[in-house]
Amino acid sequence: MATRIQFENNCEVGVFSKLTNAYCLVAIGGSENFYSTFESELADVIPVVKTSIGGTRIIGRLCVGNKNGLLLPHTTTDQELQHLRNCLPDQVVVQRIDERLSALGNCISCNDHVALTHPDLDKATEELIADVLGVEVFRQTIAGNILVGSYCAFSNRGGLVHPHTSIEDLDELSTLLQVPLVAGTVNRGSEVIAAGMTVNDWTAFCGSDTTATELSVIESVFKLREGQPTAIVDDMRKSLIDSYV
Amino acid sequence: MRLEKCWFCSSTVYPGHGIQFVRNDAKVFRFCRSKCHKNFKMKRNPRKVKWTKAYRRLRGKDMTQDTTFEFERKRNRPERYDRILTEQTLKAIPLITKIRHERQKKHITERQKGGKSMSRKKDAKELEQDLQMLPKKDTVAYEATKQKVIVSQLKTEENLMEE
């Protein structure tokens, strides 16, 4: 179920937050509105952690993670590292990596099984990703862009990519990732998908500029509508009519 | 806040001191003071500059390998906060630094031990070869030990004839 929110009047939600199936990281804002929206949706299911990375608020673009682990850039301070380790559950491995491309959220895009990475990433980093996140790693580009982490967002159930991705690329990526993919936009035509929204298996958060069309596309590709009562009734209709007879 | 090491001299850079230089390949160089920064700008290799830790370690003047160095490492995978563990670590830190200092001092005294025998050998050689260069009062005792050998007249005449 997709929610529209803003971070201090900015619609780029994926920049200031990181949502996975096991935890959610949120940037420290001036007011508590951003944090409380996440909390109201997710508080009883997964831990919602307020943090900074290297003293900055752009945490969504600097770190990458899934339910198995969290990778942080070398700019993360020791105190922030310790804070994350204390707040996140023990199954999540928190690791800081030394990589020249320090904006990991822009270079790597992953779900719980597969990861797409920037083609220039170090071999050692690639091995660390496979080890910490427990994923299969593929070096790819999306619509000619090397920053795969920013131009696509995918979960275990579906994915949204840059609008100018060709159909062949889309098919190729779909077979690699084993999820249905759709080329679309977010935040009234913004091509930077992962910066404009953040998603996990059952919720998504988009910028408040996202149009109703974009929102319906997101809800259908990530299969977020299934939790709704209407969907359940439709599925159960056959069995309900049977019971009347 | 983190106490970093100076890239040039390897001393600790405390907050509020020094300069950081970030190169185009994203490598960060930290310097403790302008002396190190200026040496770096002159493209000097710290391994060739005598007062740096890199030089001293390379030449074996300072202790290189020791188990006490293993404790102070940059760790990338943190552990969950445990009060008892933290307390024990804080208690252990001054003990470890003390042991490390003791071992470093010992390394230096060990290194300087061979000096006395070497200087004696050097003095013996000097007495043997350059006896006439030394002042007379120092060599009286040495000359007393030497035995005078009488060379026969015949032999010297033959030598003169050959010349």
UniProtKB/TrEMBL annotation, chain A:
Q: What does this protein do?
A: Binds to the 60S ribosomal subunit and prevents its association with the 40S ribosomal subunit to form the 80S initiation complex in the cytoplasm. May also be involved in ribosome biogenesis.
Q: State the Gene Ontology BP annotations.
A: cytosolic ribosome assembly; ribosomal large subunit biogenesis
What are the subcellular locations of this protein? Cytoplasm; Nucleus, Nucleolus
Q: One GO term of the cellular component aspect?
A: cytoplasm
> Where does the protein principally reside?
cytoplasm
One Pfam family of this chain: eIF-6
User: Which family, according to the similarity comment?
Assistant: Belongs to the eIF-6 family.
Q: Which UniProt keywords apply?
A: Cytoplasm, Initiation factor, Nucleus, Protein biosynthesis, Ribosome biogenesis
SUPFAM superfamilies documented for this protein: Pentein (SSF55909)
Q: How does it assemble?
A: Monomer. Associates with the 60S ribosomal subunit.
> Could you tell me which species this protein originates from?
Lolium multiflorum (Italian ryegrass)
Which segment of the chain is annotated as a signal peptide?
Answer: none
Q: Name one GO molecular function term.
A: ribosomal large subunit binding
Q: What is this protein called?
A: Eukaryotic translation initiation factor 6
TrEMBL record, chain B:
Location(s) in or outside the cell? Nucleus
What start and end residues bound the annotated signal peptide?
none
Q: Name one GO molecular function term.
A: structural constituent of ribosome
Which is a Pfam family this sequence falls into? Ribosomal_L24e
Q: Give the UniProt entry's GO cellular component terms.
A: nucleolus
Give the UniProt keywords, A-Z: Nucleus, Ribosome biogenesis
Has UniProt tagged this entry with the keyword Nucleus?
A: yes
The GO annotation for biological process reads: ribosomal large subunit biogenesis
Major location (coarse): nucleus
Domain TRASH, by residue range, is 6-44
Region (Disordered) spans which residues?
103-132
Q: What is this protein called?
A: TRASH domain-containing protein
Tell me the organism: Lolium multiflorum
